[in-house]
Write a structure and sequence with these properties.
Two copies of one chain form a homodimer. Chain A has 303 residues and is an alpha/beta fold. Chain A is built from nine helices and 18 strands.
Chain lengths: 303, 303
């Protein structure tokens, strides 16, 4: 299964008529994750026909409003739509404080459970894992505690060589043994080697979501060789001083990080509302790192 | 100057892909008022090309999320865009508590002043007036303290009879005297009666914004004879029991209030997301009160 990434918002702080603020959905095939949840996220989820109720975990990078002001509305709508599944939220603790007060004044008592996982954004830590995936925080450098998130598939089991196993009527437990690398013994005592019936496992996919941050080289070591990096590119290089002052990155700086980390593809986003046309940002980035694409609201990336 | 009402959101609690939750802009010619501010309001203001920075007063009916979750984002954007004008907010005090916490966790210190006007939703009170307009609260009946708002122009000065005054070269102060109903004395001592130089004043316009509420007849006496009534119509009559239980109204009930109050026009809105097509709601309302129209996102009403 590929990863499917849907961009719900590609704007920085102030939305434009074309661009909503930050939110993305990552479908790993096994999980539907929401990355940031700016105002308007629930409307974008509807427009993109994503199955809102299947989102199990929300990862918030930091508490500037353009990364979480939509969460209270989405949580309320889940309640209204009868959600029963536990919602897991990854964030610094202050988010809970804000959501609790918003729930209180709007007299909302959710009919589902919320489990908060308080993160330490300054650390590179494993914050979630199951048999399919690991999620790590990625320390970033911004005006408040901020982290990115790295989603990394675990080693996968071997694939079955369908044409080879078709000749044998193998029961399910033996197929599992094959996937796990074991040789199998047939009822007549004959042993068949694993390699003759299996193919190498599928590739382990990886995605890093890095926003908001200044140009920050310490990030590189955590994302080296990953498949896709989303890196904020709020400004163009002509605004490099402003970018440094606000602890944001330019398109060229985002590309430099991608280059140093040797990632396969770079997606840039979190664009300042001053840019009506985004091609100049793309051009600037591709001069440093050629396999760069623009995040635009509604874009879907499969990798 | 007519009143110009722009519907930014016509949905009830859960937005649909077509309908945003509650927000309207009333342009009285002298003021730009924002009525409720659900999630997505700032995006809708941009899409409708309304001059965001000219909004001076925000009137919040109640603290269900679909009426105020967009305020924090709009306030933050005003800050980012350099707003300097005082922002006036009319609401129950709990709104300030929620906004203060959201500002704190998002580390936002606004560069403009916010003046809160705490209202008592159970009373019919004058909460704002200047020489052009009066704004009153309208007690409603909902699951939490809720009020509507009545916007009522003050008596206007007389209009000048342009063809009559063209023959006389009157200085500005005398024109003001005429508008205020005074006779004037020409330099030669001749007195000219006011009535020969003036026309009756323009009509005083009035608009009431009533959401959310059950069918609530005590409202009628406060809105009798007004020009335009917006009344919520969350459900159709087939859901009258659910409407009563949730303290919402049906389209037919909204029309009944309009009929009893003898208003000139009724706008219905705040529709449940269960209704894909709205014409049946309109039909139901017009059977009781013929001059009814539907609120839809982006609709502009001049009256």
């Amino acid at each position: 299964m590929p990863f499917v990434l849907t961009i719900l918002g590609s704007s920085s702080a102030a939305p434009t008529s074309e661009r909503n603020p930050s939110a993305q959905v990552l479908n790993t095939g096994k999980h539907l994750f929401l990355l940031d949840c700016a105002e308007g996220t629930q409307m974008q989820l509807r427009k993109m026909r994503l199955k809102m109720s299947s989102i199990e975990r929300v990862f918030i990078t930091h508490l500037h409003g353009d990364h979480f002001f939509g969460l209270i509305g989405l949580m309320t709508t889940w309640h209204l739509l009868g959600r029963k599944d536990v919602l897991h939220i990854y964030s610094v603790p202050e988010l809970k404080e804000a959501l609790d007060v918003m729930m209180k004044v709007s007299r909302t008592t959710l009919n589902y459970q919320v489990e908060y996982h308080f993160i330490e954004p300054e650390l590179h830590s494993l914050i979630f894992e199951d048999k399919f995936i690991e999620v790590y925080t990625l320390p970033l450098n911004h005006r408040m505690p901020t982290c990115g998130y790295l989603f990394k598939e675990k080693p996968k089991s071997l694939n079955l060589n369908k044409s080879a196993i078709l000749k044998l009527a193998l029961p399910y437990p033996l197929l599992q043994d094959l996937k796990n690398g074991k040789d199998i013994t047939l009822p007549d005592g004959k042993i068949i080697s694993n390699t003759s019936l299996t193919l190498p496992p599928s590739k382990q996919l990886s995605y890093a979501y890095c926003t908001d941050t200044s140009y920050f080289e310490p990030l590189v070591k955590y994302i080296t060789g990953i498949d896709v990096l989303f890196h904020e590119a709020t400004f163009m290089e002509s605004e490099v001083k402003l970018a440094a002052e606000k602890l944001h990155s330019t398109a060229s700086e985002a590309a430099q990080i991608a280059k140093l980390a040797g990632v396969k593809q770079l997606i840039i986003g979190h664009f300042s509302s001053r840019y009506k046309e985004l091609d100049p940002l793309l051009l600037e980035a591709t001069e440093v790192f050629s396999n760069t694409v623009l995040a635009k609201d509604g874009f879907v990336f499969k990798f």
